[in-house]
Amino acid sequence: MGSRNITAQVQEDVIDRLDGEADQLGMSRSEYVRQHLHVGRRVMQASGQLDRNFLATVAEDGTDHIEGDMATSLDDIEDEILDALPADARRAMGPEEVREAVFGSDHEQLQHIKNGLDRLNEQGDITITADAESYKSD
């Protein structure tokens, strides 16, 4: 599947934040922005979940989270798969390639889970058990 560049001007402080967040996840800026762009597309497509005014508010005030039910549906996963599959009939993808294209590599998946667990722990929503490799909900 081919790719094309998108060019956008972003303020330096935003780029600094993006770089810092990407570094924390062990990602390049491009990879990090691509993932956020993809997630943003999904959020904006969520039926009835968000409206333009709310999105403008989130963009203006730098809100780091969105309240409400944002669970991934089977339709979202199917859309992700369709987006990942190549249109070229001469190129096919196996299930493992599709899994990695949709959800990232094993390392990326584990890193996302670890980051989520760390944030939940910092917020007091979960507790790390004595063996430091297990978690329980508070």
Plain-language structure description:
With 138 residues, the chain is mainly alpha-helical. Helices cover 57% and strands 4% of the residues. The chain has a domain at 10-71: Arc Repressor Mutant (Orthogonal Bundle). A hairpin with a 6-residue loop joins strand 1 (126-128) and strand 2 (135-137). Helix 1 packs across helix 2. The radius of gyration is 17 Å and the shape is globular. This is Ribbon-helix-helix protein, CopG family.
Summary?
It comes from Halococcus dombrowskii. With 138 residues, the protein is mostly helical.
**What helical percentage do the residues reach?**
55-70%
CATH architecture of the domain at 10-71: Orthogonal Bundle
Strands across the major sheet, in which order?
A: 1-2
Radius of gyration: 17 Å
Percent of residues in β-strands = under 5%
Order of helices and strands: HHHHHHEE
- CATH structural fold name of the domain at 10-71: Arc Repressor Mutant
Counting helices, strands and paired strands, the structural category is mainly alpha
Provide a count of the helices.
Answer: 6
Overall pLDDT, averaged? 76
What is the rounded distance between the termini?
44 Å
User: How is the biggest beta sheet arranged?
Assistant: 2 strands, antiparallel
- What is the tally of beta strands? 2
The 3D shape can be described as globular
* Low-pLDDT residue intervals, each spanning 5 or more residues: 65-71
> Which CATH class of the domain at 10-71 is shown?
Mainly Alpha
